[in-house]
Design a protein that fits this description.
Layout: H1 3-31, H2 33-38, H3 41-47, E1 63-66, E2 72-74, E3 83-89, H4 94-109, E4 115-121, H5 130-142, E5 149-152, H6 157-160, E6 167-171, E7 177-183, H7 188-203
Parallel strand pairs: 3-4, 4-5
Antiparallel strand pairs: 1-2, 1-5, 3-6, 6-7
């Protein structure tokens, strides 16, 4: 075989090999396209997150009495604490009653943070009968609740706006709502997480 033929065959073999490699490279690039599309999915999910509920511009002013002692109370009861968790509950409300032991546990957990827990009755008022007051006292006693509970005036504006119970607010030392409303019962740990986050936000 002549040198000329050998050179032609070598050239054709080299060209065929280059074409094969190019074709293989093209196939590899096609396979990587779906991977690029998959990275878009988390970004779409991130955009669909439900926005947080805005805290209402509300101050929990009130007048009433301490359920246990009968002593007069008002929003000045919030002053000694950095935060106060105000739990609005009713003697007829089963979820409220189930929640009371968790609130008791919470009250002991957050004392060192200068955070207090108080309860506000939504169905026992300053005008209620002795029997209704005694029922509330009995529930508190049976649930071993030591944090304070208040009976307040029936015409308190913000109390009339409560749509469901239990409803809970977290207020500052002046009674201004800084977190909530939290509608429905929560565990002690869930409330603790909300309190910790609120305390952290107040530092900013």
């Amino acid at each position: 075989m002549s040198c000329k033929k050998i050179t032609v065959l070598a050239f054709l073999s080299c060209a065929a090999l280059c074409a094969f490699c190019a074709g293989k490279k093209d196939k590899t690039s096609v396979k990587t396209e779906p991977k690029v599309e998959e990275t878009v999915v988390p970004e779409v999910q991130e955009e669909e997150k439900v926005p947080e509920v805005k805290v209402p511009d509300l101050v929990l002013n009130f007048k009433g009495s301490d359920l246990a002692t009968g002593m007069e109370v008002d929003q000045k009861e919030f002053a000694p604490a950095k935060l106060t968790l105000v739990n609005i509950w009713g003697t007829f409300c089963q979820p409220c009653l189930v929640e009371l032991p968790d609130l008791e546990k919470l009250s002991k957990k957050v004392m060192w943070q200068r955070v207090q827990v108080v309860g506000v009755l939504c169905d026992v008022f300053d005008t209620s009968t002795k029997g209704e007051v005694d029922l509330a006292k009995k529930i508190i006693r049976e649930k071993n609740v030591s944090y304070r509970n208040f009976i307040i005036a029936k015409n308190t504006p913000w109390l009339k706006d409560i749509q469901a119970i239990p409803t809970t607010y977290i207020v500052d030392s002046k009674g201004k709502v800084v977190a909530g409303p939290i509608v429905g019962s929560r565990s002690a740990d869930e409330y603790k997480a909300i309190i910790d986050a609120t305390l952290e936000s107040l530092k900013k």
